[in-house]
From TrEMBL:
Ranges where the Nucleotidyl transferase domain occurs: 15-283
Organism of derivation: Micrococcus lylae
Transferase keyword on record: yes
Domain Glucose-1-phosphate adenylyltransferase/Bifunctional protein GlmU-like C-terminal hexapeptide per the UniProt entry, residue ranges: 314-381
The protein's name: Glucose-1-phosphate adenylyltransferase
Amino acid sequence: MADPFPQDPLTATVALVLAGGKGSRLAPLTDARAKPAVPVAGQYRLIDVVMSNLAHSGIRDVWVVEQYRPFTLNQHLAMGRPWDLDGTRHGLRLMPPAEGRDEEGFAAGNGHALHQQLAAVKAFGADTVMVLSADHLFQIDLRPALAAHHERGSELTVITTETDEDPSRFGVVQVDADHRVTDYDYKPRHPKGRLVATEAFIMDVHALGEVLDALIAEAREQAAACEGPENEDAPEGSALGDYGESIVPALVARGRTHEYRHEGYWRDIGTLDAYYKAHMEILAGNGLDLDRPGWPLLTNHRPVPPARIHPGAEVSGSLVCSGAVVHGTVTESVLGPGVVVEPGATVHRSILLGDAVVPAGAHLDAVIADVGAHIPAGRIGETKPGPGNITVLTPSTRCADSDDETTGH
């Protein structure tokens, strides 16, 4: 049933946060939790970034699409309370996979996931849908982007940025002088420029429905031509793959796609190297701005006592979260809740996610230690690690489906 109350552009918009991916490139941090639930900057979770951007932008209808290991993620989201999204008519909705209708079941890609949610978006009465990933660090007021989308009569608005990374990892965008997107090339081998999509999109619901219908009809015709029995039971929309490969190019081809340029910091942290780099940027003061006035990063805080820095401890250039206890030396590092650095231990350029003890005699350099990790005494890590050479420590034992519940966070 559509919302019977009058709507403005904000309340006629549903934000779909795609949070169901396995995040295998961030393993082993994602072996026992969903990628959006991975801790970041000590006391936050990755999903806090997109949730805070939406809350500060006044977007009241936020639907989190889940699939892989949602348990800890749901515990953290707390039905939207940390972001004031626990309303009656408007607020947070959790969208887990389900059985019972043709469009439900496990998604075969984020394009399929978008198709699965379209009927619910239409039934809600929204005319605009924002599609955002939960694995990027950036701070943006989405209201100007939404206003530009409606003023231009766009079917799709791509929020873009100039990347300092390899653009072939992203969707590369070409635009004209009027900010109209003239070409979208998903993960090209030979990218034409450094302007990329941030994986944040604003879509017209009607246009999206038309494109999905056309793509699904085309896939159905191709499957029928193959005449293979393996195609008969495939769920509708499962051939859509990644929306960057199918849905976005189809919308761009209709000629009513524009960009909205994000000029600030943006980092995709889908890999361990990017995760580590993003934390070093935060510590250096040129990454995600945790102190941005009027735009705090909101989270479901863990009730722990203040950090304790004992006499004789040395701490510099670091983030030390509540519940941490430091006796030793910590430099250019992040200590999550419950981390203990014993006397004689040294932590340098490392990220300790929480509830771990760095014993006397340990010297960590460029180490990521997961929640509850076993950290042995001795020298661990590389002084000058290269790509793919970050040392990751995990708990020596973990229940098959513990999802961090044993750590209390």
